Amino acid sequence: MKCKRCREKAEVALRAHNAAFCRPCYLGYFRRQVERAIEGARMFTKDERLLLAVSGGKDSLALWDVLAELGYDVTGFYLAQGIGEYSALSRTKVEAFAATRGFRLEIGDLEQEGPGLAVPDVARLTRRPSCSACGTLKRYSFDRAAHAGGFDVLVTGHNLDDEAARLLGNVLRWQTDHLARQRPVLEPTHPKFVRKVKPLYLLSEYETAVYAFMRGIDYVVDECPNSVGATQLVYKEALNRLEAESPGTKQSFVREFVRRVQPALAEPAIAEHTDPNACVRCGMPAWGELCGFCRLVDEVTTKRARRTSAAPAA
Ligand code: SF4
Ligand SMILES: [Zn+2]
Ligand SMILES: [Zn+2]
């Protein structure tokens, strides 16, 4: 098998693109794909300051590497979620990655927030599924860090597989309001939100893993323990079966949705959409008096106080 570009021996084959590349040409191909996504969807420019949410997984670290290579002004933001070994390991990997490359890194720690907001504790106390508690805490923490640091854009490492699985889930339930907002660039709807973008939305998990491997990026291979059994994984498996039968399915599913369907769904949604107001406590965007994060903090504080007062004296 020969490289499509230079005819040297190829190291990786991409069935979806009917192409094979040697290592240097693959790295160039990957960077160009990211650049094309950024420019094609007008995600950001080199004059803007980017905050990249990094988890320690291959996608966010590969994206950090590419954005820095391409000369963007990017700072990483890692949120420690308090999920046992997984969080400890991912933090170590992120810190080592940033330190060896001299990249700027900010760290948030949920255990140190308010009444102590480690995901497993919040989930147990509020009887929410872990991923629901985690989602609220992550979204808020990223939005707040981007606003507080004066960043222009919040970047995430969602890849093609993530986006295709999310799209399939939204289509299967015809969640038109979610579909109307599923796009690679989301403009802010509140002065304390910044633009949100996903430069890897057309690059598969496999392509990112190959890039990370070729660049010698040391990432957390294990997924978060709470992802086991998540519906999202079932959708990913189904999509992988379709992809194996018909390479390119995931790409066209997501790309054509964004190009042809999403704009049509967004029109009426914009008309009906109400922008958030400000949380009376923290000032961040909220749809009621308090934002979701402050409501969660209240619930954790109350439930923890009840438990403490109910506990027998030692
Ligand atoms: S799998 Fe769930 S708990 Fe784990 S990081 Fe993702 S959203 Fe959070
Ligand atoms: Zn080549
Ligand atoms: Zn609030």
Give a description of the structure.
By secondary structure, the protein is of the alpha/beta class. The chain contains eleven helices and ten strands. It has helices spanning 23-40, 58-69, 84-101, 119-126, 130-148, 160-172, 176-181, 205-214, 231-245, 249-272, 292-310; strands spanning 12-14, 19-21, 49-53, 73-80, 105-109, 153-155, 185-186, 195-197, 277-278, 285-286. The strands form three sheets. Strands 5-4-3-6-8-7 form a six-stranded mixed sheet, sandwiched between helices. Strand 7 (185-186) and strand 8 form a beta hairpin. Helix 2 packs across helix 8 (205-214). The longest helix is centred in the last third of the chain and has 24 residues, at 249-272. The radius of gyration is 21 Å and the shape is globular. The structure holds iron/sulfur cluster (SF4) and zinc ion (2 copies). One zinc ion binds at residues 279, 281-282, 284, 286, 290-291, 293-294.
